[in-house]
Amino acid sequence: MSDSPSVYDAIVIGAGAAGLFCAGVAGQLGVKVLLVDHAPKVGEKIRISGGGRCNFTNRELDPRAPHRHFLGGNPQFCRSALSRYTAGDFIDLVRRHGIAFHEKHKGQLFGDRSSEDFIRLLLAECGAGGVEHWQPCRVEAVRREGERYAVDTDRGTVHTPRVVVATGGLSIPQIGASDFGHRLARQFGLDLVEPRPALVPLTFGGEAWQPYAQLAGLALPVRIATGEKKAAMAFDEDLLFTHRGLSGPAVLQISSYWTPGTPIRVDLAPGSDVAQLLAQAKLRSRKLLANELAAIVPARLADAWTQQDPGWQRPVNEAADKALGALAQGLARWELLPTGTEGYRKAEVTAGGIDTRMLSQQTMESRQSGLYFIGEVVDVTGWLGGYNFQWAWASGWACGQAL
Ligand code: FDA
C-alpha cells in the first residue's frame, strides 16, 4: 500500500453529462477533482443528442412527482436531487453562458445552434473549478486500500478518498459506452437491476409484418399503449415506420415500458371517429375505400391497410357495414407483438443499472463508503424529452455538493 498523500479529493470516472457537471460543481466548492475518461473526446453523447442541438432539459418536469417522467425500481429515489437542482436552475446556467435556446414540443428545450455550446458550458464550469482532465485515459482497476481508493490507470495509480462513477449506460458502444460502472458495483457487492435497452426502436418480423414493410419512412401522429390496467402506459406522439419495424418518439417512449412477449396497441387515427366518418362517406361517395380513408390517415397507410382484405378493396358505397366496422376497429386498436428491440446499438438510454437501494438519495454515495454513482449508470431512466440530461445534472449536482 502506498503512503503517499491523496493528490485528489475525488476522482470522477466518465466525462459525460453527469461527470462533467459533477466535477465542475465540486471543483467550484474547493474540491480538488481529477476527471478521467477513456474516450478521446468529452461529452460524445451530448454532441449527438437532440439531433445535434441537445434537448438539455424539460420545463414540464415536476420534481414532486418524478414517477410521471422517470422509471426504475423506485422512481421516488430521484425526487430529492431533482428538487434541489431543478430544470430552472440549469436554464439559468444556460442563460448565464449566453446560449440561446427554444422550446420545441411538450416542454422540451433545445439549443438554437449546436450541442457543442453545452459541452463548452460544461468545460468552462470545470475550468472555473480547476478540474484536472486525463483523457483518453483507461481505468484498469479501482481498489480499496485502507481508508481510500487506488485507481489504476494507463497513466499510473492515483489515490483518493472518493470515487465518483459516471460512466453512463451501455447504449452506443461505438462512442465509448461500457459496462465499467456495473462491473465496479458488482466488485464492491452492490446490487444491480438487470440493464436493458430503453428509448429504442422495436422490431417486427415474419409474415404478419409483410403488409407494413412497404411503409418504411412514413410518419404519423398516433396514440400508443402497452400494459394492462394499473400497469398500462400510453403516449400521444409521432410514429415512424422503418425497414425493420417501428420507431419515432411514440415507439421510443413506449419501448421503455414494454415487456418482451407482450403486445403494444396503436391508435392510428387518434381523435378521429373512423367508424362514423366511413359511415357518412358510404352515404355520399363512390370513391374507393382507400381514397376515402386517405382523408383520415396518410394515403400510403390507407393503401397498405386496405390491401389486407378484399372486402376493403371496393368503392365505399359498396362496402359491407361489417367490413367498414372491422376496418375502423383495426385502425383504432392495432395490436401487434414486437419480436424485440434494435438493442444498445440504437437505444438512447439503458434502463436498469445500480439499484437505488444501494445509494443515498441525498449524496449518491453507495453503501460502499466513498464510492458514488451518478447519471445513467443508476437505475433511473427518464422519458424522451430532456429528462435524462436533467437527471445527469441533478444527480451530478447532489453528488458534487457532498464530495
Ligand atoms: P454519458 O454516456 O453521457 O457519459 C459517460 C462517459 O463515461 C462517456 O464519456 C464515456 O466515454 C465514459 N466511460 C465509459 N466507460 C468508461 C471507462 N471504462 N473508463 C473511463 N470512461 C468511461 N438525453 C436527453 O435528455 N436529451 C437528449 O436530447 C438526448 N439525446 C440523445 C441522443 C442519443 C443518440 C443518445 C444515445 C442519447 C441521448 N440522450 C438524451 C441520453 C443522454 O445522452 C444520456 O442519458 C446522458 O448522456 C447520460 O449521461 P451520463 O453522464 O450518465 O453518461
From TrEMBL:
The keyword Flavoprotein applies. Its cofactor is FAD. It holds the Pfam family HI0933_like_1st. Residues 9-401 form the RsdA/BaiN/AoA(So)-like Rossmann fold-like domain. Residues 196-349 form the RsdA/BaiN/AoA(So)-like insert domain. InterPro entries: BaiN-like (IPR004792), BaiN-like_dom_sf (IPR023166), FAD/NAD-bd_sf (IPR036188), RsdA/BaiN/AoA(So)-like_dom (IPR055178), RsdA/BaiN/AoA(So)_Rossmann (IPR057661). Keywords: FAD, Flavoprotein. The keyword Flavoprotein applies. It comes from the Bacteria. PANTHER family: OS12G0638800 PROTEIN. This is Aminoacetone oxidase family FAD-binding enzyme. It comes from Ramlibacter pinisoli.
